[in-house]
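DM from R.C. (forwarded with permission)

"hey, sorry to bug you on a friday — could you get me a structure for this? deadline for the figure draft is monday and I only need the backbone to look sensible"
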Amino acid sequence: MPSRPLRARKTRAAIVEACRWLVEAGLVQGTSGNVSVRHRGAMLITPSGVPYERMTPEDVVAVPLEGDGMRFEARGGNQPSSEWRFHFDILRARPEVGAVVHTHSPYATAFAICREELPAAHYMIAAAGGPTIRVAAYATFGTQELSDAALAALEGRAACLLANHGVIATGPTLERALWLAQEVEVLARQYALALSVGTPVILDEAEIARVVEKFKGYGPRRGERAKGDAAG
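My reply, with the result:
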């Protein structure tokens, strides 16, 4: 079996690769967005203010999931992402979640700016766990208030929008969280285009409940790349 340090290095490298894929996919820009992964009682999370093209596995910050999240282990003076708090609280509150991806993807963020949830205009919304992708109430980035609002919007869901901010997608693995982050953006783009064409027909909750059931086990298998491209 690989040693614990080796596993940690592989997870850190996967986080860096995932961040670079998010840029290539157009889901984040500059240093916006962040990624975290649960690893042996700790949260491994992207550092604050480090451009993705320069980020290395050694830049990833470890935050123990015990305690208040204010202690962390980092090299080179790195601080955890400014959004560490909602990553920390989600991983603490949702033991089934293994990874959290936060993006500022354009279409989904546009709906977040309008504070409009995404409805079931397409059955793929079931990938997020229900008939809507909710919008969390607005709060200043990096605050406990934002974390609390995100947790409320994520109740019974795997993804949410953050008002005037962006998107949170979660998953049992990094692969799944990346896949869902991209699916949320595709859903938002489809809905925006449908609104420009005419009046979208929204699927009812019973249909989405059927699709949610059919989706159990659906999505990228462990080790695959989201949409054939994302890191895992």
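R.C.: lifesaver. Helices lie at 4-24, 84-93, 106-113, 144-153, 174-197, 205-214.
me: no worries. The radius of gyration is 17 Å.
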